[in-house]
Amino acid sequence: MDVSKAEIASQLVPVLGDQRDSAGDIERFAESLFEKHSSSVRVHWGLSQSDINLPLQPIVWYRLGYQCMDPSIRLGQTLDFAVGDYYLQDSGSMLALAACEADRPIEVEAPRRLICDLCAAPGGKATALLESIGDGFLLANEPIKSRVAPLAFNLARTGSNRYAISSMDPERLAHQLGGIFDLVVVDAPCSGQALLSKGKQTLSSITIAQVEHSAARARRILQSAFMLLRPGGQLVFSTCTFAERENEAQIDWLIDEFPAIPDPVDRLSPYQSAPRRRSHENSPENACCYRLWPHRDRCAGSFAASVRSDVDVPSVGSFRERKSKGKRRKQKQGTDIELPEAVATMIEAKELRIEEGEVNLWAWPADAPSWVEAISISGPELAYRTGRTWKPSHHLARRRDLQFVDSLEVDEADAWRYLRGESIRCETNGWRVVCHRGRGLGWIKASGGVGKNHLPPAARF
Known about the structure:
Distance between the termini: 40 Å
Structural class: alpha+beta
CATH topology of the largest domain: Rossmann fold
Domain SAM-dependent MTase RsmB/NOP-type: 1-310
Number of domains: 3
Radius of gyration: 23 Å
CATH superfamily of the largest domain: Vaccinia Virus protein VP39
CATH class of the largest domain: Alpha Beta
Family: Belongs to the class I-like SAM-binding methyltransferase superfamily. RsmB/NOP family.
Shape: globular
Strand content: 15-25%
Binding site for S-adenosyl-L-methionine: 119-125, 142, 169, 187
Low-confidence stretches: 322-328
CATH architecture of the largest domain: 3-Layer(aba) Sandwich
Number of helices: 14
Organism: Roseiconus lacunae
Helix content: 10-25%
Keywords: Methyltransferase, RNA-binding, S-adenosyl-L-methionine, Transferase
Number of strands: 22
């Protein structure tokens, strides 16, 4: 190891705190921070390894996670990826998903849970939660508005409509929806030391000053996250840093300051954090905190922890209607709104809660929470408007719960032509959903035997 990396190793010692010994060879750990790890495959809930045409090896801590054994395969350039049968994700990110039981076996009935992903973009964890949610509902909150578009795109890839997207400061969201969620997930902004290998972070991430700054910011978010929980609800906290002050120390603080109790995840016990010198009677030896290390676990590394709101603590609040700013969006129910022709043939409007924005139509299930329209800025899109013309949304084409009436099943060659943005042959006129193996890819509008491509640029290959 050269001198610079030896210096990095020495800087990591105070950052790791009581986790120093569990890191093992500190110089090997420091070196591993700069080694690139390929993305892993997270299979769509309800599918299995045999449904994906790739040479895969299971990830131990997550049932739906796999590593591809052929590094020459471009995982983001396959038809399985295009149709949404898997998502690309660092396997370390799946540690928190394991704590959420987002990979429960298909034969196990999903509890009807109300879930909030508080810092959701770009959607790695939110999409996994949404796929496994059953009859529950997900609020994907992203405070930074510029990150909402990729979040919405990725949520649409799941094929579900049981979600809403908000863009609110966590404190404000907690004020409006306090005490109602069964599960709150916080993938907190952090010093991001695990991102060094991807070139997305600098060496300032291992300085005490950066660690302290990030820890203070995360505490404010954690405080709001805890206030969102119903009595007995679960909070899963995760980071991509190795700093103890941003990880285990945060859980100590949460248990000290709130009626939070440890919620150990038995299946993750092999990855349990090392004991801290400062422990709690009701939090022995960080029993609810877990770590993955890049030099041991073939991933960039991550931290996850699980706590619960004390079951005896009453709810801190309920939905509070906010005052509308600017032009109020139109809210219409089912038959109160005239749907675009292509959309009307695909859905039963009477079973949906439809909302009309300036240029969008969104539709939630009839049993979605009462606050959805007031909180959301986006959601399952039915259609969008250009000028005076409504067009069916790409999100609608990806739905997995619909039987498409006007669809065009294509072979592999035509699927790739379509995904490249090209026109394809279609003998019947009008709007059609292009499908491959029964999975919707997007829309064409056909005329004279030619289907004009309406695939959004972001979805093209």
